[in-house]
Amino acid sequence: MPDxxxxxxxxxxxxxxxxxxxxxxxxxxxxxxxxLQFYRSIVQNGALKEVEIWVGRNEREEPTGFIGxxxxxxxxxxxxxxxxxMGIGSRLIKHVQKLKGxxxxxxxxxxxxxxxxxxxRFGFVQTGRSELDGSGRPFPLLHxxxxxx
Length: 149
Fold this sequence. Notes:
This protein is of the alpha+beta class and 149 residues long. The protein has helices at 13-27, 33-44, 88-100, 113-121; strands at 4-7, 52-57, 63-70, 73-79, 103-109, 125-130, 141-147. Strand 3 and strand 4 (73-79) form a beta hairpin. The termini are far apart.
């Protein structure tokens, strides 16, 4: 089935790490190569198993993007750069809203203007800001929340 969303499977791990890496290289231009390697090792060595992952798949059942959740908080959302603009991220957000209900949170890097605009298009509003990211590095985060009425 085209554009299917399925739960994480261990055999997807390396493909999802690859999607993460290529998407971050494209969208997180504020990160140095050493920053990229630092975060890649976190993703490669367990981050995907610490959250609830849903995977967007194409008609060949190959992963095209994924979203990771901790309860009602989006911890990660990455789409294969070759598939940007095809609605995969939007479908993943809608899937989470259907699963998790009326309130969903996300932290987004302030310097990632594309991601900030993406979430705001879905009605997420800023509820706070942190100077450091979750690893204590100097990449400010905007705390956003979606509440349906």
